[in-house]
Amino acid sequence: MSQQERDIYFMRHAMALAAKAEEAGEVPVGAVLVKDDKIIAEGFNLNICQHDASAHAEMSCIRAAGQSLANYRLLDTTIYVTLEPCAMCAGAMVHARIGRLVYGASDQKTGAAGSVLDLVRFGGFNHQLEVTSGILAQECGEQLSAFFRRRRREKKALKMAEKQQGLND
């Protein structure tokens, strides 16, 4: 299997995890950490359910990987994420010494792996990650866009129902 085929395979797994996040009412982002072509850990967004701003998919995955490997240093690993990591997650990846980051959709608002900032390749740090972006970018982006479209429709319907209820009272 070529590197690109492996990247697509693991990104599809991350997308399945993102779907689990969406089922839980979370923003659909999934992450998978791989070492020697084996999944070591996985995670998906749980911010809302856990009332925890740090419960991003990547953070959950990195925490689980540390437990799995009994080491906070995740050397020679690759993390696959459906959305470009934020500054918090990018910083955790640098501290964990993850070797490679592969992400799907870019994040033009908070992306910290090249879109807004590039923390994972900042030369001032003692570790930089290799980055591959755009793997299944359109599919990952559509997964997020569909979620937010649905969320906006639900909010609009709720407002209309509240307004109608007010008229009926």
Task: Supply the key terms.
5-stranded mixed beta sheet, single chain, 169 residues, elongated, 17% strand, alpha/beta
Provide a descriptive summary of the structure in words.
The protein has 169 residues and is α/β, with parallel strands linked by helices. It contains 5 helices and 5 strands; from the N terminus they run αββααβαββα. The chain has helices at 3-23, 47-50, 57-69, 87-96, 137-168, and strands spanning 30-35, 38-44, 78-83, 100-105, 130-133. A 5-stranded mixed beta sheet has the order 2-1-3-4-5. It is elongated. The mean pLDDT is 95.
Précis, in short:
This protein is of the alpha/beta class and 169 residues long.
Beta content comes to: 15-25%
**Into which percent range does the helicity of residues fall?**
40-55%
The structural class is alpha/beta
User: What is the helix tally?
Assistant: 5
The major sheet is characterized as: 5 strands, mixed
Q: Give helix and strand order, one letter per element, not per position.
A: HEEHHEHEEH
Physical arrangement of strands within the biggest beta sheet: 2-1-3-4-5
How many DSSP-defined strands?
A: 5
The shape, in one word, is: elongated
Give the uncertain stretches in residue-range form: none
Mean pLDDT, nearest integer? 95
Question: What Rg, in angstroms, do the CA atoms define?
Answer: 18 Å
Q: How widely separated are the two ends?
A: 65 Å
Assembly state of the chains shown: single chain
Topology summary:
Blueprint: H1 3-23, E1 30-35, E2 38-44, H2 47-50, H3 57-69, E3 78-83, H4 87-96, E4 100-105, E5 130-133, H5 137-168
Parallel strand pairs: 3-4, 4-5
Antiparallel strand pairs: 1-2, 1-3
